[in-house]
Amino acid sequence: MSVLVYAETSEGKFKKPAFEATAYGKKVAEQMQTNLVVLAINANDTTELYTYGAEKVVSVSNDALKNFNAKIFANVIKQTAEKENATVVIIEANANGLYASSMVAVQLNAGYASNVVALPSATNPFTVKRKTFSNKAFNNTQILTDTKVLTLAKNSVGVQEIPVSGSTEKFSPELITCNLKSESIEKTTGKITIADADLVVSGGRGLKGPENWGMIEELAEVLGAATACSKPVSDLGWRPHSEHVGQTGKPVASNLYLAVGISGAIQHLAGVNSSKVKVVINNDPEAPFFKAADYGIVGDAFEVVPKLIEKLKEFKANNA
Amino acid sequence: MKILVCISHVPDTTSKINFTEDNSKFDSTGVQYVINPFDEFALTRAMWFKEKQGATVTVVNVGNATSEPTLRKALAIGADDAIRVNAEAIDGFAVAKELAEVAKNGNYDLIMAGRESIDYNGEMVPGMMASILNYNFINACIGIDIEGEKVTISREIDGGKEVLSGNLPIVIAGQKGIVEEKDLRIPNMRGIMMARKKPLTVVEPNNAEAKTNIISFEKQAAKGACKLVDAENVGELVDLLHNEAKVI
Asked: Is A176 within the bounds of a domain?
């Protein structure tokens, strides 16, 4: 018996969610009185995982796995789970992990719970708490099968260092074929993506036009934040669709979500209310966002934001 | 080309979320149900294939009779016929299994769904369905074109997009981008009249066994009041974010 975590790499490197999933897996393994195994594919340095509780790392290196293919990766996860006799399989909830996880569940004939926010409240029957109703509620779900597949809700369990003396074992699974072919990958470089960001600065229609986004970008730069926008802003073409956050846009689960000139329609809040701290700057004190936010400033964004940038620069200078 | 669009029947976004029976069930009292917004994107793209490439479009839902008005709405938007699998949607796997059965029996070339439903947010049914059918699957699909048997698809990845090519049959989980929000359709009177005469077939389920079971619900804890900072004293916000919220 074991607990298996699939920790994704991007160009050979692990990102924060990989460590979050590993530390979570270690705690689940302790609860189940068993060992943690972490699967890493084409990783530069698997020893990084030892800091987060990975006693054993199964390392797969294969040029054919350089680009992600959900079907092939799901099968590698399945083979590793079978080899390691895993009863709980935890997959990182990024775009690729969520793509592969439902396939892994079917292949392992496992019950699957996504959006998990905490450690299991019981291991028999295995019960986990999950986000539901677009972050307005939680449910407690029992997984009834012998093998269980879990994905974690973004930024919900947190990274924790649990140093162990780990070891890495090589594994060369047989790869299945898939007739889906990757033609091209376009990625923005040099910019923090909304998916990776701890801090997000978002602008709404209150900013009056795309020409006024300079101060939003400057604010984001000072904070080291990603930029986002509300639906009307992307529909009007002021900002690219990839920046639209909200129910039908990108979900945000950052540590800080700072909304400027966004009134806070329910569809917008549904997509951002997983963020830990929400700040709103709006000149309308009746804007619904003030009911959802932790901190707020009622005022003209064109006066408040430049002042905020100045104060943040001072803060950064004093805390550098 | 035969298209199957999977439709979830979900509470409207603005619904109050409450639970009954000792927090074990969703309280549907006074709740307005709609086509799941993510499924609406898929359905709208399916309508494009119907109008431009002569596809036929079937919509399907796993649920009890209360979801029929939602299927009728999809017919009013322009789908040709509807199927309701007469079963409670207990868990993702059971729903995927029932849908896979419908997909297989009807020999559909393209099976479309939304990336997730706005009630259970599982993001699992389309991928499970594809795995059960052993069809290729694209999650977070933001573009699809079909020429004969050949499919070109874009999917959203963290920080960008990937373009893939493959063949029919295929399962895709769509989201905004597969069509734009402004292109979503509201049924017109003629559509609503026509929808009444379109076939809605009820099929009995295969009683696929659920692998998970929701035992209870909890509401989000009530949030404290928003702390207001004076617009003349912006430095206080920086201070609060650093010392109190500890996010910077």
From this structure: no
